[in-house]
Specification:
Order of helices and strands: EEEHHHHHEHEHEEHEHEH
CATH class: Alpha Beta
CATH architecture: 3-Layer(aba) Sandwich
Distance between the termini: 10 Å
Helix content: 25-40%
Structural class: alpha/beta
Number of helices: 10
Shape: globular
Strand order of the largest sheet: 1-4-9-8-5-6-7
CATH topology: Arginase, Chain A
Strand content: 5-15%
CATH superfamily: Histone deacetylase domain
Length: 338
């Protein structure tokens, strides 16, 4: 599998996050990238596509904020990572806020997603990896390509970060694919957590079909998105399909949801597929609660392959670092039919 990864993606290294009322080591660590790199072998450094494809998805003010947030944090006399603590519950307005704490809360939706010194460089590098994987598929060089994105992206909306995500790599790739005439485009999200940012970005866009198989948000993060009755709106009505599953889900249940997702993508008439792949569905993931095995990761990949579509896979979650590399490798092997 042709894999893209930027060296800058290791520079994002927050120290801690607020989790269940206490501080814990940040789960989305550079060790995740090292585990995957060790299992996958050679990677190709992505080309630099600039900001234009990012700004086709993300608000310009938000992108400017991400670029300068940590410097503003330090300029305010703070140390370490920038973490928001005050959030507008509703009625966000485009106010010209000065204090970094206000801007962190304006653009962030949780206290688990710090902005560290290397965050922008890593997020930018991950987006370029996704775009370069799309280039390889769009040019016909390969039928499938993997963007080893880190930090992940599917929780990031057009103008907000959260869930360890800052730029939405899958959405950036999907919109770029549509702009290149590769549509209709489908995004299949198989991370344990719902891809709320991706859903939000394409909520009223009927040209991109979004389908997500994830933990039921009645009990699991991100709680406020990913319920089965969310189907898009306006021009995007019916172009969102959520398939929430209970904690403890094993392959016998997951397989049925995957089948429904693949049938819906085929019925949509997709010509290009973007997969948001998360290995946090694994049975021993420390922050998730499904019970899939490494063999099941290969089965997911093999199922996706039955669509026969040009496919760009972007990496999302997966926090059992010791098992992460082999789980990703198993998914990609299944996708390739090896």
């Amino acid at each position: 599998m042709l894999t893209f990864c930027s060296p800058a993606q290791s520079s994002h290294a927050p120290l801690r996050e607020l989790h269940n009322g206490g501080w814990m080591d940040h789960a989305e660590s550079p060790a995740r990238l090292a585990s995957m790199r060790a299992a996958l072998g050679a990677v190709r450094e992505p080309a630099d596509h600039g900001l234009a494809p990012i700004l086709a998805v993300h608000d310009a003010g938000y992108v400017a904020f991400l670029q300068g947030a940590h410097d503003a944090w330090l300029a305010a006399g703070r140390e370490g990572d920038a973490i928001p603590y005050a959030f507008p519950v509703r009625g966000r307005r485009p106010l010209a806020l000065e204090r970094i704490d206000a801007r962190l809360g304006r653009y962030g939706f949780d206290a688990a997603t710090p902005i560290a010194a290397g965050t922008w460089a890593s997020a930018y590098g991950a987006a370029q990896s996704a775009l370069s994987a799309l280039d390889a598929v769009a040019s016909g060089e390969v039928r499938q390509a993997f963007a080893l994105c880190r930090p992940p992206g599917h929780h990031a909306g057009a103008d907000y970060f959260g869930g360890y995500c800052y730029l939405n790599n899958a959405a950036i790739a999907a919109r770029a694919a549509a702009a290149r005439g590769l549509g209709p485009v489908a995004v299949l999200d198989v991370d344990y957590h719902h891809g709320n940012g991706t859903q939000d970005i394409f909520h009223e866009d009927g040209s991109v079909f979004f389908v997500s198989i994830h933990a039921d948000p009645v009990r699991d993060y991100p709680y406020y998105w990913g319920h089965a009755d969310e189907r898009g709106a306006g021009d995007g009505e019916g172009a969102t399909l959520n398939l929430p599953l209970p904690r403890g889900t094993r392959w016998d249940t997951y397989e049925g949801a995957l089948g429904k997702a693949l049938e819906a993508i085929a019925a949509f008439g997709a010509k290009t597929l973007i997969v948001s792949y998360g290995a946090d569905t694994f049975e021993s993931d420390p922050i998730s609660h499904f019970a899939l095995t490494t063999d099941d990761m290969a089965r997911i990949g093999a199922g996706v392959a039955t669509l026969g579509l040009p496919t760009v896979t972007v990496m999302e979650g997966g926090y059992d670092v010791a098992a992460l590399g082999r789980n990703v490798a198993a998914f990609l092997a299944g996708l390739e039919g090896t």
